[in-house]
Amino acid sequence: MEKAMERQRVLLHHLQPPLPSSSSQASLSVSACLAGGSAAYQRTSLYGDDVVIVAAQRTALCKAKRGSFKDTYPDELLASVLRAVIEKTKLDPSEVGDIVVGTVLGSGSQKATEFRMAAFYAGFPETVPVRTVNRQCSSGLQAVADVAAAIKAGFYDIGIGAGLESMTTSPRGWKGSVNPKVQKFEQAQSCLLPMGITSENVAHRFGVSREEQDQAAVDSHRKAASATASGKFKDEITPVNTRIVDPKTGDEKPITVSVDDGIRPSTTLSGLAKLKPVFKKDGSTTAGNSSQVSDGAGAVLLMKRSVAIKKELPILGVFRTFAAVGVDPAVMGVGPAAAIPAAVKAAGLELDDIDLFEINEAFASQFVYCRNKLGLVPEKINVNGGAIAIGHPLGATGARCVATLLHEMKRRGKDCRFGVVSMCIGSGMGAAGVFERGDGVDELSNVRKVE
């Protein structure tokens, strides 16, 4: 503060005109800035405290039970992406303050142990802790948000938010008995509805037609196939060296997996129209316009901007805000329509300021509803396809979407500054995160609008 005031004195000395001794004109004087220092200093401080993403990688997503990862242990999938973000940045793994992994299915205790094992496989020392987080389909995004919040709070400067789901190996379905008390609470009952029924509820309540849903599915496969053919996913997909077992002989064959195996470029409206509804006899939700059951993992490496600058690491993106909201469990798919405005508002932005959206396609019904409800331009949403084509490994989807979004924003450059990741959540919630392109801001910029 004293140095800043001294600079003011020197400057004002040069600005002050000579005055006659009899003049009563007030002279310029120095005073302390109420902000506690110069404005430039304050901006620099906030700029250095930004939480940034320096690497975001994922595995290919493969069909559960019959895809390329059906014989791969879950911890091997996670280890591959944890190793990838470290190797990409040449970071000393001992500097990581925490690894938070989103996951949904299976025993929480077993998953916590698996993920600790995966960290060792990936080369992390025993000093780096690991924990899990479960917010259903937003678990991967929640893990990223948790790490960003911890860095912002000063708990550590570097962390990894990751996600994993092996829907091949993890059991699904309710275990044990349900509390009879649930019969007295309609919304509690709705928490137990199969996700497909909630999709049908959205379609029925909000008038989303079967044709609209099938068209969304066709678009998803078309865009994902185009992105794969043009090599767009190469920057974000970490090849996984694994094996596949012949079910007849038991022989193992080594393979390298680097391509999503659920994309069907030949998908057509006429072909989808032939599929029967899965959840209701007269319904509109089919296997063709729903997300695929998949195996996969993703990891996002975050740190304080000042640390990234010191390490001379290129910044892929900036974490801005996160919001999780509750909605009616019976139509849980509407979650993004509530969460996106909340997250965007928290960032001081308007929906029109967002250049790209990654909205998880759990079901085409809820995806179409959210897109229409928010009035979003279709050309801004899931430009490389979504979960209907690529797949939806529950706990990994959030991390996968962050990787896909940030790499696409980097490709688009200056014309793409802000992006959003969002998804609906089982039992009636929605989550959304706002990200900024890594080179879209400097120490003199401010993400918030000044009215």
Automatic annotation (TrEMBL):
GO molecular function list: acetyl-CoA C-acyltransferase activity
UniProt key word Transferase: yes
Swiss-Prot/TrEMBL keywords: Acyltransferase, Fatty acid biosynthesis, Fatty acid metabolism, Lipid biosynthesis, Lipid metabolism, Oxylipin biosynthesis, Peroxisome, Transferase, Transit peptide
InterPro entries the UniProt entry points to: Thiolase, Thiolase-like, Thiolase-like_sf_Thiolase, Thiolase_acyl_enz_int_AS, Thiolase_AS, Thiolase_C, Thiolase_CS, Thiolase_N
Broadest EC class assigned to this enzyme: transferase
Thiolase C-terminal domain ranges (all copies): 315-437
Protein name (record): acetyl-CoA C-acyltransferase
Gene Ontology BP annotations: fatty acid beta-oxidation; fatty acid biosynthetic process; oxylipin biosynthetic process; phenylacetate catabolic process
CDD domains in the cross-refs: thiolase (cd00751)
Active site per UniProt: C137, H392, C424
Family to which this protein belongs: Belongs to the thiolase-like superfamily. Thiolase family.
Source organism: Brassica napus
GO CC annotation terms, alphabetical: peroxisome
Domain Thiolase N-terminal: start-end pairs: 51-306
Localisation per UniProt entry: Peroxisome
Enzyme Commission number, as recorded: 2.3.1.16
Pathway this chain belongs to: Lipid metabolism; fatty acid metabolism
